[in-house]
Each structure stands twice: as structure tokens, then as C-alpha cells.
Amino acid sequence: MRDAFAKIPTPALFIGLAGLIPFVVGAAGAWLAEPAAAALALNAMLGYGAVILSFLGGVHWGRALAPDLAMRPNWMQLIWSVTPALIGWGAMFTGQIYSVLIVYLIAFTLAFIVDAKAVRGGLFPAWYGTLRKILTTGVILSLAAALYAVFDASRFAGG
After folding, report:
1. What is the pTM of this model?
2. Among candidates 116, 121, 117, which has minimal Cα distance to 137?
3. Which regions in the chain score pLDDT beneath 70?
């Protein structure tokens, strides 16, 4: 694993890890801030989550259009490339923070599975799969911690 970790280009690793900050801060805010600020931290994290889901889909759109591919983009590639954005955007309308968190847990897991398959299929370099595993783990842990905080009713009831 250390060797695979070392193969991640330094800029991608640092920018990727920096991209975890809003997730970690959102989850920490859910636990450490007073209820109004905790709700703000959670909403900020969820808005950012929708943006990142869009980014993850956009990676596939860009790859489908890359000139080095011998094949033309197909329907499945392009449909998948917009699916994470639609899931993230749609989840924001559920009206409940806990339901958005649950949808995001599923969506980020699904996005990782699709990316891992794309790496195995040679569409992305192996280091991308390693980076996605690291980042997805951080996102999932942050979302799960936030979900647990939301379900801790006494936390948001002020006592």
C-alpha cells in the first residue's frame, strides 16, 4: 500500500486531501458546535458534498471525451457522468439533513465502485484508484460521524 500511496502525484494527493477539509470540519461542527452553528456546518458540508459529487461525475465526462480513447463516448459513460451531480442536487430537496447524509453515503460509495471499475478497465491510472480509496474513506467517515450526530437527539435539543 505504501508503494501505491507513493505513486500518487504530489499535487493530486495534496489537493485531494485538502478537499476533505470541508467534510471533516462539517462533521466536527456537528459534534462540537452549539446547535445553530452545528446545523450551519452540516448544511455547508452537504452543499460541498453536492459539488464534489458533480466533480466525480465530471471526471468521467472528461475522460469519455479524451482524444486518446479509441472509442467514441457511449451512453452509459455519459449518463453516469451526470448521475452523481443529479443525486447530490436532488438529495438537497429531501428536507431532512439525515436523509441527505444517507443518500450521500450511498452516492459516494457508488461513485467509488464505478471509479474502481474504471481504474481496473484502464480508463484511469492505478494511482487514481488509490487516491479515490483514501478520499472516499475520509468522506464516508465524515458523513457517518455527521449522521450519528444528527441522530443524537439530545445533542440538538441542547442537552
Report:
1. 0.91
2. 116
3. 1-2, 4, 69-71, 153-159
